[in-house]
Design goal:
Layout: H1 2-9, H2 11-20, H3 25-46, H4 55-79, H5 85-92, H6 95-106, H7 114-131, H8 148-172, H9 180-197, H10 211-239, H11 241-262, H12 269-285
């Protein structure tokens, strides 16, 4: 569990290092997706899992890849041009809050439960503490030059994208007959292809990157995207959904700690307070389980897939996190992140309480 949290949570660190050394957000998105897909394809091949067949499934995967991988990966990297890696990880953890809002908008939530409403308001209050718009320095979220407000909005957009993805995937990618590992490998492959289509438009947008940038994005794609999904799959199968959900709550802590230790990002009382408030709000938005159930068997290959990602939180979300393939939602583990998840690729779609929309406990998608 500790290794999984470290790999997922470090995704923001590697993204920051790749940006500092010349890669653009779009280049990071494509390389991360391609490297993560390569890892999952190798793992699926070794497990003798076949990729999905049929144009309808691949079309659904394209939509999932857009909202669970391409958009959140790009928006997260874009936002981190003006926001530090620590606050970015915390903002990514808001995926469950967006999942609850989407559920209420679609009418799949059973009304405004006081506890969950309080968690929703508390979570976004924590975002305000981190952003601190009433402060001239924009609070602890402002780490680089530029307008931090746009960076915060981009990161919140990434978290919301995970939430949309988890809701969509829970509805249309259930029961495809394809094992979750192969399904996620296919999703990340499509994500790399979609991102590549936009590369010509971004030609010349970089000042040139170096070996350190390539090393950072390689670790991001291989370890923080591809390998983490595999580890999350094994964790859910062996330890259960509760253990996987716990990992999602560790991601913002890991991203904040690594940002302070490795990147020398300031660890202010305001930032720590905001992180605690966001996580408390996310915890309150989680539906209370009606009964505890031990996970004793391996996941059913026809159940809800685990989105290819990590999240922040999803998350994703979540995206407790459902058993793979039905555990986030995230999505690599999260988009209630949600998500996790924050993610993530390792984004786990969340479990659903009766009458509620898919959501993840936290974003498992960095």
């Amino acid at each position: 569990m500790a290794v999984l949290a470290l790999l997922w949570g470090s995704g923001f660190l590697w993204t920051e290092l790749a940006l500092r050394n010349g890669l653009t957000p779009l280049q990071i998105t494509v390389l991360r997706s391609a490297l993560g897909a390569a890892v999952l394809l190798l793992l699926a091949r070794s497990a003798r899992q076949r990729l999905p067949r049929g144009a309808a499934v691949w079309l659904r995967l394209a939509v999932a890849a857009l909202f669970c991988n391409v958009l959140p990966f790009f928006l997260a990297a874009l936002g981190m041009r003006t926001v530090g890696s620590g606050p970015a990880g915390v903002l990514n953890a808001t995926t469950p809050l967006w999942s609850l809002l989407i559920g209420l908008a679609l009418g799949t939530e059973r009304g405004w439960h006081p506890r969950r409403l309080g968690g929703l308001l508390l979570g976004f209050a924590g975002v305000l503490v981190i952003f601190s718009p009433w402060q001239g320095d924009a609070g602890p979220a402002h780490q680089h030059g530029g307008a931090p407000g746009w960076g915060v909005l981009a990161l919140l957009g990434a978290a919301a994208s995970y939430a949309v993805a988890f809701t969509y995937m829970g509805r249309v990618l259930t029961g495809t007959g394809t094992a979750p590992l192969a399904l996620s490998a296919a999703q990340l492959t499509v994500a790399a292809g979609l991102g590549s289509l936009a590369l010509p438009a971004a030609a010349g947008a970089t000042d040139g990157f170096n070996v350190r940038a390539l090393a950072a994005v390689t670790v991001l794609g291989v370890l923080s995207t591809g390998l983490t999904f595999h580890l999350n799959y094994r964790l859910i199968a062996t330890e259960g959904a509760t253990a996987a959900a716990t990992v999602g709550y560790l991601l913002p802590v890991v991203s904040t700690g690594l940002g302070a230790l490795v990147l020398d990002e300031p660890l202010s009382p305001r930032g720590v307070t905001g992180m605690a408030v966001v996580l408390a709000g996310v915890l309150l938005t989680r539906p209370r389980p009606t009964r505890e159930r031990a996970v004793t068997a391996a996941p059913d290959a026809r159940a809800t897939p685990v989105p290819a990602l990590p999240a922040v939180p999803a998350v994703p979300a979540v995206p407790a996190v459902p058993a793979v393939p039905a555990d986030r939602t995230n999505g690599p583990g999260a988009p209630d992140h949600s998500g996790g998840h924050p993610a993530s690729a390792p984004c786990s779609p969340p479990p659903r309480s009766p009458g509620s929309a898919p959501a993840s406990a936290t974003s498992h998608c960095p």
